[in-house]
Amino acid sequence: MNNDIIAGKWSQLKGKAQAKWGDLTDDDFDVAEGNTEYLSGKLQERYGWNRDRADQEVRDFTQTLN
User: How far apart are the C-alpha atoms of 23 and 4, rounded to whole Å?
Assistant: First the structure.
């Protein structure tokens, strides 16, 4: 699933993302609105992951949506 589709369906996907990354707040998800780069940055901030790990988490998440 590409980033444009994720952004378009964000309200539907938000619940799945919240279940996966419980340390992120509703506000984080509202601001992200499907922006995978922002989401990756928030994962780095909240979980202390490096950029590669956060990007991989987001990629893995998007692949589960197909």
Answer: 25
Quick one: 38 exposed, middle or buried, by C-beta within 10 A (0-12, 13-18, 19+)?
Answer: middle
Cβ atoms of 12 and 6 closer than 8 Å: no
* Alpha-helical segments (H) within the chain: 3-8, 10-20, 26-32, 36-47, 51-64
pLDDT in tens, 28-64: 998 988 888 999 999 999 999 999 999 999 999 988 8
DSSP label at residue 50? -
Tokens of 29: 């998800």
Spell out the residues 6+ positions from residue 63 whose beta carbon is closer than 8 angstroms to its own: 1
- The neighbour count for residue 1, using CB atoms within 10 Å, is 13
